[in-house]
C-alpha cells in the first residue's frame, strides 16, 4: 500500500498526525494509496516555512519569476502523459479528458508568464505642483488554496500560477480523493527553479482547512468545491480578516430554441451532460427545450446517442466516453437522487440504474440517465447531482425557459442553442449567470478571460484567472511624492558657512 506524503520545504514529508484517508481507484473500487491528513501543527509548520521563504521570492524581479513558469510549462508538456495517467487512475476520468485537465491548467500558467506586464503599476506625472502619484501591486505574502476532486491539475494551477507569479508563497490543500497530481506539480515547479517553500502541498480534510482558515499569517484563500463548504470557508475566512474567493456548485441549464439545429444541440448535450460522468461544475444538467415539438424532437435525437455512450475505465482506450464516478458514496447518492426523480413523477426515458461493467463490478460506474417532464419542485431539479443524469424541463416559451435558469439558486454557466441572433443577444444580456454559451454548451472562458459564476455559485468579488487573478493575489500601494527643490542652480563656487 503506497503511503503518500505532504510536500513541505522542497521535500516529501510523511504525515505525523496518524490520520489517513483512502485514495481509491474508482474503476476497480480498490484502495490504491493512503494520504495523510495534516494536523494543525503540520499546517502551521508549512505556513512558517512559507513565511520565511516568501520575501526573497517577492524580491526576485517579475521577469525572472516568469521564467520559472516558462520552464514549468516545458516540464508539464514533457510529463503530460505521466500526469494524465496518475490523474485518471485516481479520478477515473478518461485519458484524453485527463490531458485536457492538465492542458487547461497549463494555459493559465502560460498566461501568468505575462506577469511583468500585469504587475506594472500606474503613474501620474504632475498630479499637483511638483507632485507625482504612482501605484504598485505588491504580493500579499502567504496565500492558500483548497481545491476539489474533479479537476486535480487544472484548478490548483489556476490558483498557484498567478499567486506565485505575483511573488507570493502558496499552500495548496488539494482534494484528499486525488492528491497525487498536485504533489507531482509541486515537484515539477521545483525542477523548474522555484525556491523551496514557495509552493507547498499539505494534504488533509476539514482539520487542515480549519488550520488554514485560522492561521493569522495566511493572507488569502481561494476555494473551489461544493456550495455549503464554499459558504463556510467564505464566512470564517472573511471574519478572520482574510481575502477570500470561493467558487461553488452548479446546475447549468441549456435552452434549446425551436430554430436550433437539433443534431448539433443533441450532440452538445450528450458531451456536456455526460462527459466526465457529469462531474464538472460546467456540465449541463438541465435541458430546457422550448415548445413540446422541440422537446419531442430533442428527446428523439438524444435517446440513441445516450444509449450508445461507452462507459469504461481509462485503460480501455480513447473511445471511452466517460469513466466511473469518484467514490462509492457518490455513486449511491446519484442513484438515490434518480430514485427520487422517479418517485416524484419525472419520466425516466433512459434508465442507467442496472449498468454493470464486466470485470469491473466493484468500480463506481454509473449508467447514463435521461429524465423528461422534470418540474422545478423535484429534488433532481433543485440539487446538483454531479453524475451522468440529464433532466429535461419543458418550457412553453422563451420567457419561461429564461425564467427557469434565472430563478435557480445556482448561476455558474448556461447555454442557449438557436439560429436567431436577436434571441441569443437578449439571453446573453438578461441572464443572471456568470458564464454564457451561445451554441457552445460548456462556455469555460480561456485563460486570459476570467472564470466565475454568480448567485450561489461564487462568493467574493473577483473571478479566477485572467486579469482578476492578478488583482486577487496582489494589493495596491499608492504613493504620493513631492520632492523639495534640488540643486538646479548649479554648483557653489564660494566657500560659505552652513546655515
Ligand atoms: P467538496 O466541497 O466536497 O470539497 C472541496 C474541498 O473542500 C476539498 O479540498 C475538501 O477536502 C474540502 N472540504 C470538504 N468538506 C469540508 C468541510 N466540511 N470543511 C472544510 N473543508 C472541507 O467538493 P468536491 O466534491 O471535491 O468537488 C465537487 C464540487 O465542486 C461540486 O459542487 C462542483 O460543482 C464544485 N466545483 C465548482 C467549480 C467552480 O469553479 N464553481 C469548479 C469545480 C468544481
TrEMBL record:
One of its GO terms (molecular function) is methylmalonate-semialdehyde dehydrogenase (acylating, NAD) activity. GO terms for biological process: L-valine catabolic process; thymine catabolic process. Its EC number is 1.2.1.27. CDD domains: ALDH_F6_MMSDH. It is an enzyme of class 1 (oxidoreductase). Pfam families: Aldedh. Keywords: NAD, Oxidoreductase. Gene3D superfamilies: Aldehyde Dehydrogenase, Chain A, domain 1, Aldehyde Dehydrogenase, Chain A, domain 2. Residues 13-479 form the Aldehyde dehydrogenase domain. This is methylmalonate-semialdehyde dehydrogenase (CoA acylating). It comes from Primorskyibacter flagellatus. The lineage of its organism: Bacteria, Pseudomonadati, Pseudomonadota, Alphaproteobacteria, Rhodobacterales.
Amino acid at each position: 500500500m503506497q503511503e503518500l506524503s505532504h510536500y513541505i520545504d522542497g521535500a516529501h514529508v510523511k504525515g505525523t498526525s496518524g490520520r489517513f484517508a483512502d485514495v481509491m481507484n474508482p474503476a476497480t473500487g480498490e484502495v490504491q494509496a493512503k494520504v495523510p491528513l495534516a494536523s494543525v501543527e503540520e499546517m502551521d509548520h508549512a505556513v512558517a516555512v512559507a513565511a520565511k521563504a516568501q520575501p526573497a521570492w517577492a524580491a526576485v524581479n517579475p521577469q525572472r519569476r516568469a521564467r520559472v513558469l516558462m520552464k514549468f510549462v516545458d516540464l508539464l508538456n514533457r510529463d503530460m502523459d505521466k500526469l494524465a495517467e496518475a490523474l485518471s487512475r485516481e479520478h477515473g476520468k478518461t485519458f484524453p479528458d485527463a490531458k485536457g485537465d492538465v492542458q487547461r491548467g497549463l494555459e493559465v500558467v502560460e498566461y501568468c508568464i505575462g506577469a511583468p506586464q500585469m504587475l506594472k503599476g500606474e503613474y501620474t506625472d504632475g498630479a499637483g505642483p511638483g507632485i507625482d502619484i504612482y501605484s504598485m501591486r505588491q504580493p500579499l505574502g502567504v496565500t492558500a488554496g483548497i481545491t476539489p476532486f474533479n479537476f486535480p491539475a487544472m484548478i490548483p494551477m489556476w490558483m498557484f500560477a498567478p499567486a506565485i507569479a505575483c511573488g507570493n508563497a502558496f499552500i495548496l490543500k488539494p482534494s484528499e480523493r486525488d492528491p497525487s497530481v498536485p504533489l507531482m506539480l509541486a515537484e515539477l515547479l521545483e525542477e523548474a527553479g522555484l525556491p523551496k517553500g514557495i509552493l507547498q502541498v499539505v494534504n488533509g480534510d476539514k482539520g487542515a482547512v480549519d488550520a488554514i482558515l485560522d492561521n493569522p499569517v495566511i493572507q488569502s484563500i481561494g476555494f473551489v468545491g461544493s456550495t455549503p463548504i464554499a459558504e463556510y470557508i467564505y464566512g470564517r475566512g472573511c471574519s478572520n480578516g482574510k481575502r477570500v474567493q470561493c467558487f461553488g456548485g452548479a446546475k447549468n441549464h441549456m435552452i434549446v430554441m425551436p430554430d436550433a439545429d437539433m443534431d448539433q444541440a443533441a450532440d452538445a448535450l450528450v458531451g456536456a451532460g455526460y462527459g466526465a460522468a457529469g462531474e464538472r461544475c460546467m456540465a449541463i444538467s438541465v435541458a430546457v427545450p422550448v415548445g413540446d415539438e422541440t422537446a419531442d424532437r430533442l428527446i428523439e435525437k438524444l435517446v440513441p446517442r445516450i444509449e450508445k455512450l461507452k462507459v469504461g475505465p481509462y485503460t480501455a482506450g480513447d473511445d471511452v466516453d466517460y469513466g466511473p464516478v469518484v467514490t462509492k458514496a457518490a455513486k449511491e447518492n446519484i442513484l438515490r437522487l434518480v430514485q427520487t426523480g422517479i418517485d416524484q413523477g419525472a419520466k425516466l426515458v433512459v434508465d442507467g440504474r442496472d449498468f454493470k461493467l464486466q470485470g469491473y463490478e466493484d468500480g463506481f460506474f454509473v449508467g447514463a440517465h435521461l429524465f423528461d417532464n422534470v418540474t422545478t419542485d423535484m429534488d433532481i431539479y433543485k440539487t446538483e447531482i454531479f453524475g451522468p443524469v440529464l433532466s429535461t424541463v419543458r418550457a412553453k416559451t422563451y420567457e419561461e425557459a429564461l425564467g427557469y435558469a434565472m430563478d435557480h439558486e445556482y448561476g455558474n454557466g448556461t447555454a442557449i442553442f438557436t439560429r436567431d441572433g436577436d434571441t441569443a443577444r437578449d439571453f446573453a444580456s438578461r441572464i443572471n449567470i456568470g458564464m454564457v454559451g451561445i451554441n457552445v454548451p460548456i462556455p469555460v472562458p480561456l485563460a486570459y478571460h476570467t472564470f466565475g459564476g454568480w448567485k450561489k455559485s461564487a462568493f467574493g468579488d473577483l473571478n479566477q484567472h485572467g486579469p482578476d487573478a492578478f488583482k486577487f493575489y496582489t494589493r495596491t500601494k499608492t504613493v504620493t511624492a513631492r520632492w523639495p527643490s534640488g540643486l538646479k542652480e548649479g554648483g557653489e563656487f564660494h566657500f560659505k558657512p552652513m546655515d
